[in-house]
Amino acid sequence: MDRRPVTSSVIRSIGYDLSTAELEIEFRSGDIYRYYAVPPSVHRELMAAESPGAFFNRHVSDRYPTRQQYER
């Protein structure tokens, strides 16, 4: 999944697959997590947020099933 860089002290980049409704977030720590069943509107709002990290904490974290990904 292609990710786009964002301006955030917590998040490095964000990707989204519309066909599967999967959101992928790469954190500044290097950890990458994939979130499932995320509506496209949440992705759009996350990308447009003044603070992607704060939006993530309020609207994504602990709201959607997730799994840690590993770069290959």
Walk me through this protein's architecture.
The protein has 72 residues and is an alpha+beta fold. The chain has one domain (3-69). Helix 1 (40-48) packs antiparallel against helix 2 (52-59). It is built from two helices and five strands; from the N terminus they run ββββααβ. The protein has helices at residues 40-48, 52-59; strands at residues 3-5, 11-17, 22-27, 32-35, 66-69. The radius of gyration is 11 Å and the shape is globular. Strand 2 and strand 3 (22-27) form a beta hairpin. This is KTSC domain-containing protein. InterPro entries: KTSC_dom. Residues 7-64 form the KTSC domain.
Portion in beta strands: 25-35%
How much helical structure, as a percent, in the residues?
A: 10-25%
Shape: globular
* Strands, count: 5
Low-confidence stretches: none
- The number of helices is 2
The profile of the biggest β sheet is: 5 strands, antiparallel
Mean pLDDT: 95
Number of domains: 1
Tell me the Rg in angstroms: 11 Å
What's the N-to-C terminus distance?
12 Å
Enumerate the strands of the largest sheet in spatial order, edge to edge or round the barrel: 1-2-3-4-5
**Which structural class fits the helix and strand makeup?**
alpha+beta
N-to-C series of helices and strands: EEEEHHE
Pfam families: KTSC
Domain KTSC: 7-64
Protein name: KTSC domain-containing protein
